[in-house]
Amino acid sequence: MKKNLKLPVVLLALILAGVSMISCQKKLEPGKSIEQIRSEDGVPVRVATIGEKEFNKNLTFFARLSGIKETTQLSRIADKVVKINARVGSTVRDGQVIVEFPKDSPTLQYDQAKLGYDNAKKLYDRMSQLLKAGETSQQNFDNAETQYLVAKKNWESVLQFVHIESPISGTIVQMLVKEGDMVKHDVPIFTVAQLGKISAKVWVSSSEVQYVKSGMTATMRINGEEHQGKVAIVDLSMDEQHRAFGVEIHFDNRKGKIKSGITTDITINAYNNSDAIMLQRKTIVRDGDETYVYIAKDGKAERRDIRTGLENGIDIEIKEGLAPGDKIITEGISLLRDGIKIKIVD
Predict the structure, then answer these.
(1) Would you give the distance in Å from CA 206 to the centre of its chain?
(2) How many CA atoms lie within 13 A of 148 on its CB side?
(3) Is residue 7 over pLDDT 60?
(4) Which whole-number Å values give the CA distances from 160 to 49, 87, 98, 103, 277, in the listed order?
(5) Pick from 297, 298, 290, 301: nearest CA to 334
(6) Cβ contact 197:215 at 8 Å
(7) For 108-167, how does the pLDDT look when each residue is reduced to its tens digit (9 = 90+)?
(8) Ordered DSSP codes for 25-41
């Protein structure tokens, strides 16, 4: 009896084991791959509708302001300052003596040069009168004139060492010495500037200079007040030292509110497009010389080659290849290729 019961029990155990194995085999059977799911349902992507908006490209530079004409005069000898004929804020004329040095320096031989000039001038004046009266020859007059011109040039050269003149008419904006100071040779002693207009020199990179033109508006803010100027000069060749192109900007200063020597930010409105198509950098694919995006069309991804323009932070202007209303794919781009099926998700 017991032997007869064992057989059904063994069969039942075998049946249960078989069912268990079949169940395990079903769990282990591979399902659909991600590639198969994407092929059937489409690559999940997010899209955005392209529109137009205003795009401004501003270039900002840090610059030092100066008079439209500005120059700093240097000492020509190492000696003591004996007299100063102007102060900061004084209006001076071209050729006016501003700073004087001693005339008795033995190295200059000022007195000898002055005496030689005076004697040569007297002789020249006398020969001029004699020539008019017919009492001397043209040769004698020419010799006297030559001696006079040489002596005059020599004296004027010596005089430039002791009388430092203003090279332009303008305003003294810096006086760097005072009477009694001992100064070295070739050190700055004063600066004169024409302040009716203020100038700023900025340096523009080779990639940006193509957008900067004479006449463009530039702005700066000083003490809370905005000042507008114009781009006056754009250099045509690159400066080797700065590895950039010089751009000169002029600001009207007839009211005298802008001071020479200060530094500030200056912004040039280099570009404006009121109907620009802008894309974020992450939506654009760059592959060697090729630049393209993907748009959603008829349930598929369509590759569009584009030409980009200026950049503004994370946004890039699109010059060619897209139109308002196109559905640009913004996410899932790395999984795309031209013509692949897509599934738009929220």
Answers:
(1) 10
(2) 16
(3) no
(4) 74, 20, 11, 11, 64
(5) 301
(6) no
(7) 888 898 999 999 999 999 999 999 999 999 999 999 999 999 999 998 989 999 999 999
(8) HHHHS----HHHHHHHH
